[in-house]
Design a protein that fits this description.
The complex is a heterotrimer of chains A (241), B (246) and C (637). With 241 residues, chain A is mostly helical. Chain A has helices at residues 21-47, 53-65, 67-97, 113-116, 118-137, 157-166, 168-195, 201-230. Chain A contains eight helices and no strands. In chain A, helix 5 packs across helix 7 and helix 7 (168-195) packs antiparallel against helix 8. The chains are: A mainly alpha (241), B alpha+beta (246), C alpha+beta (637).
C-alpha cells in the first residue's frame, strides 16, 4: 500500500552534524573561506614582484625562516583542500544520485552558470594547485629552478617566476586556472553568506555583486604578473642563465 | 490553437516509461493547462487510450496537488503560478510542449505524471509542528506578536507543499520546503520553544529521504508558486548552527 | 423512526457544560483499547484525528489526496469567525449564535448552533498556539475584519489563505501524532463502504487508489469528515476530487441524509468561459465591500463596459436593496444575478456574468488603497481572465460553494447509526438553510477539536471496547459488494465518459435545482436524472484495470454516486414547499420576490432514509424547537 505508513521511517541517529547536508555545506563554506584568505595573502605576496627582485626574495626567505608558521599554514591549507575537494566530489555525486532519472528537457530559470559549474572550476583549480606545487614549491617539473640563487645567496624566487611565465604555455594554463578560481568565487562568495545564514532578501544581490568584485580583483591581481612578464614589463635580472 | 504534446507515460512505478506524442487541437487560450489536458484526455478515452494521469485537486493554486514539469520548468515558468492556474494563452499556436513528472529520488513516479511526495509528509512528521495538545492553551492575544514578525512568518507559511522546489533544484534538494516550515515556526514565539530540536530532526529526515544538498542555485525560488524566498534557507542554516551550539 | 436530537435540557448557555458533565468518560488507561477510523483530513477530520490521538485513542485516518494537507478546507480564503469581541464592538457568544441562526433562516438546531458559538473562542486560541500566522495589528494583537455583511468585526484571517493556514495547523498536529505512532495515515485511499456489525458502525471498506486493492478496516467507531456534495453541480468552487461517495455509501447503509436541498451558491466567482471548464474560482466576498454590481439595462447590450453610459446601467442590488446594496446576503445576491442573466442582460462571452465594478471606489479611494486591500485577488483575476480589473470591471457569477445539508447527526454528532459520527461540512447540524461567511472553518474545527473528542468518549464508555476484527462476515460481504460494483463499472465498456455524465448531471441540477427551484422543474429534473442514471449504467466508458491507479474508474464511481444522490436532493427540494435560506422555491415568494418561509409547516429537519435503488427515500422529520429566539423574517431592504 502506498501509504505513509508503508515505508518504515529509518532512525535519525546516523545523521550527525558532519554527515548532514547542512553540516557538510558549512564545512565547505568554512574551508573555502580559509583557502580564500590564503589566496588573498598569496596574491599580496606575489604582487611584491613589482617592487623588485630583492623584495620578493626577501619575502620568500622570511617565510622560509618562519618555517613553523609556514608549515602549519601549509598543513591547514592541505586539510582544507582535502576536505573541500573530497566533500565537493561527494556532494556532487550525492546530488547526481538524488535524481536518478534525468529530465528530457532541461531549462534553467535563474541559476548562474558559475553555480552550475562549481565542480568543474573547482576541479580545474585542484589540478592546477597540484601542478603549481610541483612547479614552484617542490620544483619537480623544472628541477633547474633549484639552482637559482641571487647575489645574497638566497633562493632566487624572482627569477624562477619570471623564467616560468616566459613560457607561453605555462602562462596560458595559469590564466585559465585564475579564471577558474575567480569564476568559482563569483558563486562561492555569495554562497558563503547564504550557507552561514548571513543572507536575506536585501543583502542577496549585494553579496552577488561583492562576489564579482572580489573575483575580478583576484583575477587581475594574479594574472597581472604573467601578463607583465609576457609583455616584458618584468624581465629576468641580468646574469641569470 | 493546435499544439503537439510530448507526454511522459508510465504504467506504474516498475514500468520504465517513455514519451508519447499527442495532438491537442482547438485549444482555447482561456483554458488552464490542466483543462487542456482534460480535453486531450476526453479525446484519448474516445480512442480507447487510457487518459494521461496527473495529480490535481483545487485548481485554484492552493492545494499543492498539481505538479508537472512543462518544457523543463516545474509549473510551467509563469511567476507565482501553479500548473492549474497557468493559462494556455502563455503558449503559441503550433508549439510543442514537453510534459514530464517531477523527478527526484525522493519522489518516485507512481503513474504517468503522478509522483509520490509522501517524503515531504515524513519530514513534517519529524518536527514540522508546535507540540501543543488541544485545549489548555493561552488566550490568543496573550502573546502579542509584532506585525512584521507575524507577516514574515506568514510569508514562509504560504508554502503549499507542492514540491516544485525539489523538482526544479538541479540537486533535487528539499531545502526550500523544509526551511519554509522551519523559518515559519522559528519566527513565531509559539514555535521558538522547540526550535533546536525541530531543525535537527527535520534536516535529519530530509537527508534520510534522499533529497540532494543545497548548493545555492536558487532555482527553487524561481519556480515556487508562492514565491517563497531563499532567505528562509539562510535562516534554516542559521537555526541549524544554533542548534549545534545549544 | 424517531429522531432523537439528544439535546440536553436546561438553559441554552448551560447545555454544553451540563452535557459534558453528564457524558461518561473513558479511563485514560483504557483509551488505547479503542480504535477510531476517521475518513477525511480537512479541518474537521485532521483536527479530530489529532485530538483523539492526543487523548490516547488509536486513530486510523484516510484521505483520497496524496497528502492530508491537500483536503479542500485549504481553499477557504476569507476567514474564521469567533465571538472574542476583541474589537469591543458589542460581539458576544449570544450575538454570534443569533447571527448564525438568523443567517440560516431559522432552520438549524438551536443547541448545536449555540455550542458552535461557545467553542469558537477556543479555536482561535488553539490555532494561535499552533503557530497559525493570523493577521495582526501594529500593537501585536490579532486583527479582525467584518465579513459577509456582519455588523461586528469578528473574523480572524491569514491573508487570503485562512483555510490553508488553519488546515496546516491541524495537519501539523496530525503529523505530530503520525510521527508518534498514534495515528496511522492512509493517503490515496477511498472509502467505498461502511460496515455495520450488530447495527453499529464498526469499519469501512477502502480502495487503495494506487494498487486498486480493496481492503477492510475495523474500529470501535467511524467518523466521517468527508466534506460537502457541491460537485453534484459539476462546476463548483470545490476541488475536483471532492465527492459525496463516503457520505452516500453510509446513507445506503442506513444513515439518514438531512436537508440535502440546502446548498449554498456563492455570488462572487469567476464566470465560466466554455465547455471545457472544470472549476469555478471563488473571488473573496470581501470584494463586494467596494465593488458595485451592475448589468446593462438593455437586453443583449454587447458594448464593452466602458462604452455603456451610466444611465444605461442597472445597479440592481442597490436598486432592490437600498440599505444593504451590494452587501446583500449570499443567497439574495446570487439569485439576483441569475435573474438578470436569465433576462438576457448578462455580460461576457456566455451571457452568464455580471460586472463587479471598482471604478467608483478607485476614484474615491485611489488605486493604491484598492490594491492594498484586494491586490492579490486582482492579480488572480488577471491571471485567469487576462483582463486588468483596475481598468475593466470584473465579471462574476454565482457558483456552487458549500453544503449546509449533510448526514443527520444528534447533539453528540452521531448519526442514527450508533458509532457513526459525522463532522464538519459532511453533517447538517449547525448552519440551517444558509451559512454565514467565515463560519465553515469555525464549524469544522469546533467539531474536530472540541466536540467530537468528548462525545465519542461517551459512546465508547457506553458500548465498551469490542475488538472487532475484519474476518467477520459483514466485512467480507461489504468487500464483495464493493468489488462487484467496480467490476460492473469496468464491464459496461460504453461510449460516454464519466466526465460527460457529470457535466450533464451538473446542467440538470444547475438549471432545475440551482438558485431557484419550482415543482415542475424539480419533477422534470427527477425524470432526467433517472434517464441519465440509466444511460450511465449502460453506456459509461471506463478504461484500464481495477488493479492499478485508474482515475477514470475513481471518477466513474463518484459520478455514479452523485447521480443517485441528486435524486434525494431533488426529492428534498420538492418536499420543502417554502423558501428559506439557500433554498428558493419560486412558488413561495412575496410580491417583491423575497423568500417566503413557512414556519408552521416546515420548521423541521428533513432526514431521508434509503429504501432501495430507484425507490423514493422515506422522509423522517426532526421538529426544530426554538426556545430562545423568535422566528423572524429576514429583511435586507
Amino acid at each position: 500500500m502506498s501509504t505513509v505508513q508503508a515505508k518504515p521511517v529509518p532512525s535519525q541517529a546516523k545523521v550527525t552534524f558532519i554527515s548532514s547536508s547542512i553540516g557538510k555545506k558549512i564545512f565547505q563554506a568554512v574551508t573555502g573561506s580559509l583557502m580564500f584568505f590564503f589566496v588573498v595573502g598569496h596574491m599580496l605576496g606575489n604582487l611584491q614582484i613589482f617592487i623588485g627582485q630583492d623584495q620578493l626574495n626577501t619575502y620568500a626567505q622570511a617565510l622560509k625562516d618562519l618555517s613553523a608558521l609556514l608549515w602549519s599554514v601549509r598543513f591547514v591549507m592541505f586539510v582544507c583542500l582535502v576536505i573541500h575537494v573530497w566533500w565537493g566530489i561527494q556532494l556532487y555525486f550525492e546530488n547526481l544520485f538524488s535524481r536518478p532519472i534525468r529530465y528530457i528537457v532541461n531549462t534553467t530559470v535563474q541559476a548562474s552558470l558559475s553555480s552550475r559549474t562549481m565542480i568543474f572550476t573547482g576541479g580545474g583549480i585542484f589540478l592546477y594547485v597540484v601542478y603549481h606545487l610541483l612547479h614552484y614549491t617542490f620544483i619537480v617539473t623544472n628541477p633547474q629552478y633549484a639552482g637559482l640563487h641571487d647575489s645574497l645567496g638566497r633562493h632566487d624566487v624572482y627569477s624562477m617566476v619570471v623564467l616560468g611565465f616566459q613560457n607561453g604555455w605555462i602562462s596560458t594554463v595559469y590564466f585559465i586556472a585564475m579564471f577558474s578560481l575567480s569564476y568559482h568565487l563569483t558563486h562561492a562568495i555569495p554562497s558563503l553568506f547564504q550557507t552561514l545564514g548571513l543572507n536575506n532578501d536585501k543583502t542577496k544581490s549585494k553579496f552577488e555583486v561583492l562576489g564579482w568584485l572580489v573575483a575580478i580583483v583576484i583575477f587581475v591581481g594574479f594574472s597581472v604578473i604573467p601578463a607583465a612578464i609576457l609583455l616584458k614589463i618584468i624581465n629576468l635580472p641580468e646574469g641569470v642563465l | 490553437m493546435n499544439l503537439t504534446l510530448r507526454v511522459w507515460r508510465q504504467k506504474n512505478s516498475q514500468d520504465k516509461g517513455h514519451l508519447e506524442i499527442y495532438q491537442a487541437n482547438d485549444i482555447n487560450e482561456d483554458m488552464s493547462f490542466l483543462e487542456m489536458l482534460d480535453v486531450v484526455n476526453e479525446d484519448l478515452i474516445k480512442k480507447d487510450i487510457e487518459p494521461i494521469h496527473f495529480d490535481h485537486d483545487c485548481r485554484e493554486g492552493i492545494c499543492g496537488a498539481c505538479s508537472l514539469v512543462i518544457n523543463g520548468i516545474p509549473h510551467g515558468g509563469k511567476k507565482g503560478c501553479t500548473t492549474c492556474e497557468l493559462r494556455m494563452r502563455n503558449f503559441k499556436d503550433g508549439d510543442t510542449i514537453t510534459i514530464e513528472p517531477f523527478r527526484a529520488k525522493a519522489f518516485p513516479v507512481i503513474r504517468d505524471l503522478m509522483v509520490d511526495r509522501s517524503s515531504l509528509d515524513r519530514v513534517m512528521q519529524a518536527g514540522g509542528f508546535v507540540s501543543v495538545n488541544t485545549g489548555g492553551v493561552p488566550d490568543a492575544n496573550a502573546i502579542p506578536i509584532h506585525k512584521e514578525i507575524s507577516d514574515k512568518a506568514m510569508d514562509a507559511a504560504a508554502c503549499i507543499g507542492c514540491g516544485a522546489c525539489v523538482a526544479a533544484c538541479p540537486n533535487a534538494s528539499a531545502m526550500l520546503f523544509v526551511s519554509a516550515k522551519v523559518s515559519h515556526l522559528a519566527t513565531l514565539p509559539q514555535g521558538k520553544v522547540e526550535r533546536e530540536q525541530r531543525v535537527r530532526k527535520m534536516v535529519a529526515q530530509m537527508d534520510i529521504e534522499g533529497f540532494g544538498n543545497c548548493t545555492n542555485y536558487y532555482e527553487c525560488e524561481a519556480v515556487c508558486p508562492k514565491e517563497i524566498s531563499v532567505k528562509s534557507i539562510a535562516m534554516m542554516n542559521r537555526e541549524y548552527m544554533r542548534a549545534l551550539v545549544k | 423512526m424517531k429522531l432523537e436530537s439528544k439535546v440536553p435540557s436546561g438553559p441554552l448557555a448551560e447545555k454544553w457544560d451540563k452535557h459534558r458533565f453528564e457524558m461518561k468518560l473513558v479511563n485514560p488507561a483504557n483509551k488505547r483499547k479503542y480504535t477510531v477510523i476517521v475518513v477525511g483530513t480537512g479541518l474537521a477530520g485532521a483536527s479530530a484525528a489529532a485530538t483523539m490521538a492526543e487523548l490516547g485513542y488509536n486513530v486510523k485516518n484516510f484521505c483520497f489526496q496524496d497528502s492530508p494537507r491537500r483536503a479542500h478546507s485549504i481553499g477557504a480564503q476569507g476567514g474564521i469567525n469567533a465571538a472574542k469581541n476583541y474589537q469591543n464592538d458589542g460581539d458576544s457568544i449570544w450575538r454570534l449564535f443569533f447571527d448564525t441562526i438568523k443567517g440560516g433562516d431559522f432552520r438549524s438546531r438551536e443547541a448545536n448552533t449555540y455550542r458552535l458559538a461557545q467553542v469558537s473562542n477556543n479555536i482561535i486560541d488553539q490555532c494561535a498556539a499552533q503557530g497559525v500566522p493570523f493577521a495582526r495589528e501594529y500593537g501585536g494583537l490579532l486583527a479582525n475584519r467584518s465579513f459577509g455583511g456582519a455588523q461586528v468585526s469578528r473574523t480572524f484571517y491569514a491573508r487570503g489563505q485562512t483555510g490553508q493556514q488553519l488546515l496546516l495547523g491541524a495537519y501539523s498536529a496530525l503529523q505530530r501524532q503520525i510521527g508518534l505512532g498514534k495515528v496511522q495515515m492512509f493517503p490515496r485511499t477511498e472509502m467505498l463502504d461502511l460496515v455495520l456489525v450488530d447495527g453499529h458502525a464498526k469499519g469501512i471498506i477502502i480502495r487503495d487508489l494506487v494498487t486498486g486493492e480493496i481492503s477492510s478496516h475495523a474500529a470501535d467507531a467511524v467518523v466521517l469528515g468527508t466534506g460537502g456534495y457541491g460537485r453534484v453541480y459539476n462546476l463548483s468552487t470545490m476541488g475536483l476530487g471532492c465527492n459525496v461517495t463516503a457520505a452516500y455509501r453510509a446513507y445506503k447503509r442506513g444513515a439518514l441524509f438531512a436537508n440535502p436541498c440546502y446548498h449554498q451558491i456563492h455570488p462572487t466567482c469567476i464566470p465560466h468561459t466554455g465547455e471545457y471548464q472544470s472549476k469555478l474560482t471563488l473571488m473573496s466576498e470581501s470584494l463586494r465591500n467596494d465593488g458595485r454590481i451592475w448589468v446593462p439595462k438593455n437586453k443583449g447590450d454587447k458594448r464593452p463596459p466602458g462604452e455603456i453610459p451610466e444611465e444605461e446601467r442597472d445597479y440592481y442590488l442597490e436598486r432592490k436593496y437600498p440599505s444593504f446594496g451590494n452587501l446583500a446576503p449570499r443567497d439574495i445576491s446570487s439569485r439576483s444575478a441569475k435573474e438578470v442573466c436569465d433576462e438576457g442582460r448578462g455580460v461576457g462571452p456566455t451571457g452568464y456574468g455580471v460586472y463587479l465594478d471598482f471604478s467608483e471606489a478607485i476614484g474615491r479611494l485611489g488605486k493604491k488603497v484598492i490594491s492594498e486591500k484586494y491586490g492579490n485577488l486582482f492579480d488572480m483575476y488577471e491571471l485567469i481572465n487576462d483582463e486588468d480589473p483596475y481598468q475593466v470591471p470584473m465579471r462574476i457569477y454565482p457558483a456552487s460553494h458549500y453544503s449546509m445539508g449533510g448526514l443527520w447527526v444528534d447533539y453528540n454528532l452521531m448519526s442514527n447509526i450508533p458509532g457513526l459520527h459525522v463532522i464538519g461540512e459532511a453533517n447538517f447540524s449547525d448552519h440551517g438553510a444558509n451559512r454565514l461567511g467565515a463560519s465553515a472553518l469555525m464549524q469544522g474545527l469546533a467539531d474536530g477539536y472540541f466536540v467530537l473528542p468528548y462525545t465519542i468518549g461517551d459512546y465508547f464508555a457506553r458500548v465498551g471496547a469490542q475488538n472487532i476484527t475484519t474476518d467477520r462476515p459483514e466485512f467480507r460481504e461489504a468487500e464483495e459488494a464493493v468489488s462487484a460494483k467496480i467490476k460492473k463499472l469496468m464491464s459496461i465498456k460504453g461510449e460516454r465518459t464519466a466526465d460527460s455524465f457529470h457535466k450533464a448531471l451538473g446542467e440538470i441540477m444547475w438549471e432545475k435545482a440551482g438558485l431557484a427551484r419550482n415543482e415542475s422543474g424539480l419533477k422534470k429534473a427527477l425524470e432526467e436524472i433517472a434517464t441519465l442514471k440509466e444511460e450511465f449504467w449502460q453506456n459509461v466508458k471506463v478504461l484500464g484495470s481495477n488493479e492499478s491507479l485508474n482515475q477514470t474508474l475513481e471518477k466513474a464511481g463518484r459520478v455514479a454516486d452523485f447521480l443517485e444522490f441528486a435524486e434525494i436532493f431533488c426529492y428534498d427540494a420538492l418536499n420543502r414547499e417554502e423558501s428559506c435560506g439557500a433554498h428558493f422555491r419560486e412558488e413561495y415568494q412575496t410580491k417583491e420576490g423575497e423568500a417566503l418561509r413557512n414556519d408552521k409547516k416546515f420548521a423541521y429537519v428533513s432526514a431521508w432514509e434509503y429504501k432501495g435503488d430507484g425507490v423514493k427515500p422515506e422522509l423522517h422529520k426532526e421538529e426544530l424547537e426554538f426556545e430562545n429566539v423568535e422566528l423572524a423574517t429576514r429583511s435586507y431592504k
